[in-house]
Automatic annotation (TrEMBL):
<dbReference type="InterPro" id="IPR035906">
    <property type="entry name" value="MetI-like_sf"/>
</dbReference>
<keyword id="KW-0472">Membrane</keyword>
<keyword id="KW-1133">Transmembrane helix</keyword>
<feature type="transmembrane region" description="Helical">
    <location>
        <begin position="72"/>
        <end position="92"/>
    </location>
</feature>
<keyword id="KW-1003">Cell membrane</keyword>
<dbReference type="InterPro" id="IPR000515">
    <property type="entry name" value="MetI-like"/>
</dbReference>
<dbReference type="InterPro" id="IPR051613">
    <property type="entry name" value="ABC_transp_permease_HisMQ"/>
</dbReference>
<keyword id="KW-0812">Transmembrane</keyword>
<comment type="similarity">
    <text>Belongs to the binding-protein-dependent transport system permease family. HisMQ subfamily.</text>
</comment>
<keyword id="KW-0997">Cell inner membrane</keyword>
<feature type="transmembrane region" description="Helical">
    <location>
        <begin position="20"/>
        <end position="45"/>
    </location>
</feature>
<feature type="transmembrane region" description="Helical">
    <location>
        <begin position="151"/>
        <end position="170"/>
    </location>
</feature>
<protein>
    <submittedName>
        <fullName>ABC transporter permease subunit</fullName>
    </submittedName>
</protein>
<dbReference type="GO" id="GO:0043190">
    <property type="term" value="C:ATP-binding cassette (ABC) transporter complex"/>
</dbReference>
<dbReference type="InterPro" id="IPR010065">
    <property type="entry name" value="AA_ABC_transptr_permease_3TM"/>
</dbReference>
<feature type="transmembrane region" description="Helical">
    <location>
        <begin position="200"/>
        <end position="222"/>
    </location>
</feature>
<feature type="transmembrane region" description="Helical">
    <location>
        <begin position="98"/>
        <end position="117"/>
    </location>
</feature>
Length: 240
């Protein structure tokens, strides 16, 4: 079978399967980024808090999840989670091993890692906001929620976007590690295709090319978002 037939969309081709696997990779990464955004915002708030216990808890979170290898985190959540669910199931009379959904566990594990990096991005973005603007808003009696909506959040978004783009790329690469759970994302599917056809070089090159393509598209999207946020910020600044 020729390479074009192997990579085609016919009955024996792997083209459609690889594209679906790439879509699965994007879905896992996007889910992980959203989980990380929520956790990152909470951890950043803790690290900026006036309470020492919250700052220590935030520091511990970022230190652990940035210091422990990503693959180990995925192993702990996948196998540890399955063991926990199986144990709980036995309490209620269930028999045998109970596995956890690979997508859910993979997205959660990568999201926890992403959250540690996003927390630092958000914290740095908040510290970059001019204190004078916030003090001026308080001086004129602007409510806290309105001040956050009109001053703090738009500027934090502006300063954080480049860092979030880097975290997205990191999470996109980390998603390849979820292949150890058996989820049919891009790396796992490339391995299966290579093993089935013995065309290892071809399918790993194709898999790497698809990763690079997703990276290039992501860069364009984030660059466009940064430019648009920058224009909006300059427009609003000129009006005021």
């Amino acid at each position: 079978m020729s390479i074009l037939e192997l990579l085609g969309f016919g009955a024996d081709g792997w083209g459609g399967v690889l594209l679906l696997a790439a879509a699965m990779t994007v879905a896992v990464t996007l889910t992980a980024l959203l989980i990380g955004a929520l956790l990152g915002a909470l951890i950043a708030s803790a690290k900026l808090s006036g309470l020492r216990i919250l700052r220590v808890a935030g520091d511990c979170y970022t230190t652990v999840f940035r210091g422990v290898p990503e693959l180990l985190v995925i192993y702990l959540f996948y196998f540890g989670g399955s063991t926990f669910v199986t144990t709980v199931g036995r309490w209620f009379g269930a028999q045998g091993f109970i596995g956890v959904p690979p997508f859910l566990i993979g997205a959660l594990a990568v999201g926890l890692i992403s959250g540690a990096y996003q927390a630092e991005v958000y914290r740095a973005a908040v510290l970059a906001v001019s204190r004078g603007e916030l003090e001026a808003a308080r001086a004129v009696g602007m409510p806290t929620l309105l001040m956050m909506r009109r001053i703090l959040i738009p500027q934090v978004l502006r300063f954080a976007l480049p860092g979030i783009g880097n975290v997205w790329q990191l999470s996109l690469k980390d998603s390849a590690l979820i292949s150890v759970t058996g989820l049919a994302e891009l790396l796992r599917t490339s391995q299966v295709a290579a093993g089935s056809t013995h065309q290892y070089f071809v399918f790993f090159i194709v898999g790497g090319t698809l990763y690079l393509l997703m990276t290039m598209i992501s860069n364009r999207v984030f660059n466009h978002a940064e430019a648009r946020v920058g224009r909006t910020f300059r427009t609003n600044f000129a009006r005021h």
